[in-house]
Amino acid sequence: MPSTTKDSTGIVAIKNEVIDFVSSENLRDTLFHYGTNLLFAIIVLVVGWWIAKWSGKAIRKILTKSKTDAGLVTFLSSLSTIVMKILVVVTAVTQLGVQMTSFITILGAAGLAIGMAFSGTLSNFAGGVMILLFKPFKVGDTILAQTHQGKVTEIQIFYTYIYTGDNKVVVIPNGPLANGSITNFTKEKKRRVEWDIQITYGSDFVKAHELIESFLKEDKRILKDPAHLIALGTLGGDYVHITVRAWAKTDDFWPVYYDLNKRIYLEFENAGIKLPSK
Which domains does the chain have, with CATH numbers? Predict the structure, then answer.
């Protein structure tokens, strides 16, 4: 019985101490202080995140109106958004009472570890800078890179966006893109169009030459300088190959190519010139 009384007395004492601690003025002040800091940190984080996104869009609009290079516009707008988000996070953390020196030390150590883990990401950033400096292509160009061909729509700090002919979006890391081979189809204003036309042995090559010559002269999209070429190419086992080369504006490349194919198919047979049957 005395033991039970002693245990009850101890529990009551602990309970009283807890009540005193919870109701103490220091605890209320501490909770109020940290609660206020936490509230302000959340407000800074939410508002700052929104401002970062808004500023990125505003910078893009300003640079676009100033006729800045489209690739530089997307690069700088995405870079400014990321930098501002980092500043927002730092501000929110310091609002919680974390000392800036301690935070910078932790951030530096974390940055080193992250940098080693994401060295590819850093190389993508460097690749984006190299692309903007040396301009192997710009927004709006049609390129072939990393086995993908399409129109460049955005050059961001880590990735370049390409729209393919069948309306797919290809996202290519800037690091491998800057270090790999790139074929730019639209950098120059004119391109050479080439055909390998096959006719059967016994067909009139002179007549074929005259027809192709007339086709090229009648097509106003064919440039006169440089001059076009029509030549007897490879003499194959079954067919004679006629090599045709002509120059056109880059935008006219495919229409010129397809239209000459169409005329050859429709008019060679009527002229007695036989095309391969298989």
Answer: 22-117 (1.10.287.1260), 135-184 (2.30.30.60), 190-268 (3.30.70.100)
- Kindly report, residue by residue over 65-102, the tens digit of the pLDDT: 776 667 667 777 777 777 777 777 777 777 766 665 65
Claim: this prediction has a pTM higher than 0.85: no
Contacts of 148 (CB under 8 A, 6+ apart): 162, 164, 170, 172
What is the rounded CA–CA span in Å between residue 17 and residue 15? 5
Strand order in the sheet with 182-184: 169-173, 159-163, 148-155, 142-145, 182-184
Alpha-carbon distance of 98 to 258, in angstroms, equals: 68
Helix (H, G, I), strand (E, B), or coil: what is residue 155?
strand
Residue (of 191, 226, 233) closest to 208 by Cα position: 233
Cβ-based neighbour number of residue 229 at 10 Å: 13
